[in-house]
Amino acid sequence: MSGLFLSKGLYPEDFFRATIEFLKREQQADGSIPWFEGGHADPWDHVESAMGLSIGGEYDAAERAYFWLRDSQLADGSWWAAYRNGEVDNRERRETNFVAYIATGVWHHYLISQRREFLQAMWPCVQRAINFVVGQQSPHGDINWAVDADGQSMEDALVTGCASIYKSLECAWNISVVLGEPRDEWRTARAALGDAMRNKPERFDRTWESKARYSMDWFYPVLTGVVPPAKGSAHLQKRWGEFVEDGLGCRCVSDEPWVTVAESCELTMALLAAGDHARAVNVYSWLHQWRDGNGEYWTGYQMVEDLLWPDERPTWTAAAILLAADALTEHTPAHHLFKEVRLLEVEAELAEEAERYTSGR
Q1: In Å, how far from its chain's centre is CA 86?
Q2: Which one, of 85, 9, 6, lies nearest residue 331 by Cα?
Q3: Does 212 fall in a domain?
Q4: Which ranges in 136-260 belong to alpha helices (H)?
Q5: Which contiguous run of DSSP H or E holds residue 43?
Q6: Strand partners, 147
Q7: Range(s) of the domain holding residue 311
Q8: Count of domains in the chain?
Q9: Strands 249-251, 258-260: parallel, antiparallel or unpaired by DSSP?
Q10: In degrees, to the nearest 5, what angle opens at C-alpha 15 toward C-alphas 14 and 18?
Q11: pLDDT of residue 50
Q12: pTM for the complete prediction?
């Protein structure tokens, strides 16, 4: 199927029910969500899948996913790069953007469910995770991409990874404000990271070949608020022809004939963040030709060989489809998360809490 044009208030619940059921079906008994049956789970993609469950109204399943992370968290606040069948599958490193993403997922779930007890239950886990990540920040503001098996910093920074952390620090700050424990050092770290990303390009890709050929390096700064909305459209326009294939989607890398569904969904949300609603609707409308009959979505399409590749239909791709649909239709109270930067003010949150108390809500 193709040509699904979504707009505010027009979330096709019946159409997406099979996709949500797919996420539920792939979730393991312990709460973890692997890429697919028999595959591994990593902390970032696991959280992405949990957000899809929240959008689908599957609050208990989503919370089991977050509690799995809470219960498997290491003493320093991090997680290993991958897990499989209840065991660590990759002990080579612990990636900072993977670790930080727990804050984005927890805040997303709270925005939708309004379950304050869930927020409180996850707060110690979020604190440990964000403190681990901020501990990897350099004096220049960039954040090391990982630590190795021995806990030693792997000293270089990724544009996409740091952009994702930038959004996670926004969410972590908001959690801290809602719970009455504002962590000013997190807001300071976020500001320093934003400054590094906007003004210190030499801090990124220092020890390896530039990753600018990856589309995520192009649109993630817009998606996460590093590039402000006023500059977002011009930023995306600069490399549009390198990455976007009309009628198909967004390439993963500029020099390979391969469009991927998850990147196309994230580009959809980046376009919304930049105020380019028409192109966002159009890009998203192309993606459902990559849907199979069970509501799952293929990873991508290889244009030269005319084949779906790889032979995978990952949970996180399905979740990205749901996140973009929510952003377009404003179906849940979290629809704005990847379209806007919303940093809570302490005084405003206290006033709102007082109003809730006096009105009995």
Answers
A1: 23
A2: 9
A3: yes
A4: 159-178, 184-199, 215-223, 229-238, 240-243
A5: helix 43-55
A6: 94, 153
A7: 13-359
A8: 1
A9: antiparallel
A10: 90
A11: 99
A12: 0.96
